[in-house]
Amino acid sequence: xxxxxxxxxxxxxxxxxxxxxxxxxxxxxxxxxxxxxxxxxxxxxxxxxxxxxxxxxxxxxxxxxxxxxxxxxxxxxxxxxxxxxxxxxxxxxxxxxxxxxxxxxxxxxxxxxxxxxxxxxxxxxxxxxxxxxxxxxxxxxxxxxxxxxxxxxxxxxxxxxxxxxxxxxxxxxxxxxxxxxxxxxxxxxxxxxxxxxxxxxxxxxxxxxxxxxxxxxxxxxxxxxxxxxxxxxxxxxxxxxxxxxxxxxxxxxxxxxxxxxxxxxxxxxxxxxxxxxxxxxxxxxxxxxxxxxxxxxxxxxxxxxxxxxxxxxxxxxxxxxxxxxxxxxxxxxxxxxxxxxxxxxxxxxxxxxxxxxxxxxxxxxxxxxxxxxxxxxxxxxxxxxxxxxxxxxxx
Length: 395
Ligand code: CMC
Fold this sequence. Notes:
54% of the residues lie in helices and 3% in strands. By secondary structure, it is an all-alpha fold. It has 2 domains: 16-227 and 346-368, Citrate Synthase, domain 1, CATH 1.10.580.10; 231-339, CATH 1.10.230.10. Strands 1-2-3 form a 3-stranded antiparallel β-sheet. A hairpin with a 4-residue loop joins strand 1 and strand 2 (29-32). Helix 2 packs parallel to helix 17 (347-368) and helix 5 runs antiparallel to helix 6 (118-144). Residues 193, 196, 227-229, 231, 258, 266-273, 323, 325, 328-330 line the site of carboxymethyl coenzyme *A. GO terms for molecular function: citrate synthase activity. Pathway: Carbohydrate metabolism; tricarboxylic acid cycle; isocitrate from oxaloacetate: step 1/2. Pfam families: Citrate_synt. The active site is at residues 272, 330.
């Protein structure tokens, strides 16, 4: 049909110019604003990474203090949020709840709703980064029927999140530095990943000039799917299923199912549209996973052993080798989160918490681009030719 290029799944179409994240899928390289993920994961923390993604560079000492003050100034959410949350069933999926809560933020901040105003976008960015941990922890507390814990601004970003999750008014909670650092690393590794499905959703949604909080809620909704952010939950469920089948001894049998295209079974946490080599995030996550299990005395964690066995077989198997399928970030992140007490159903919400900065940085970049236009893909129409409506009795 000539006029438009047909490219389902955007396999070969660039939707934008971007200066934020660079991926070399063949080398297995990931850079945020030019800095290798391996250096950021070791030398910086998540809030440094947020500064980098939002403003283009790592903060100096003064910028670091100012940025942290600004974020912590916004960690509480409006008290009315509790009543909104109360409308959900307690067993609602946290991602259903998060889609609602983030969308609801759009109703609270009338001073930052103009996406075309850079100051509005800036304050919306700070609010989102600051409030996501509070919202995820509230969703969790609601699901277990415990009182909400207010944020504590003297704690680190990850430390505050763990406290809001696991402290109660009867008992405070202290987190070990190893665990705090592991969670912070999960946040860094998930902070941005160029034009993935949820980020593209945020850009497309924001391109209509909508409320910035609403655009981020669209990203949360997209992330939920098992082919994207939902893979961490799906991966852990898969490992638990294999464990229930008989564990490491059953890996071969499970792999045969995966290789049988009719089974519809995929090895979750494996494969990536861009990485055709080891996902560098998966390497870092595997290291963190080992550290956390040692810290918690869970070196013999059966799911970790199972994951290692699966990985080994997959990396040697012709099916996986031919298709260049390697573990992705979600393969080990679920094991870490489970070990530190985070329920499986909350994994994707934690991914959303971390990806929020990427979404908002990408949204800001799009709006500030002089070439930006409303996103409006074309189609190749393959339906019925023009025809006349028949009277009901003749149809
Ligand atoms: N297990 C088994 N086979 C697979 C897998 C897998 N996980 N992933 C891809 N394949 C096969 C697929 O069947 C196809 O085979 P063939 O060429 O014979 O038809 C080939 O590999 C290419 O797959 P594709 O579906 O065309 O690749 P894609 O780029 O469209 O999909 C993906 C990428 C991530 C959706 C896919 O690899 C997948 O479903 N993985 C499992 C889910 C997952 O772990 N997702 C998290 C991605 S990383 C975090 C994030 O970005 O959210």
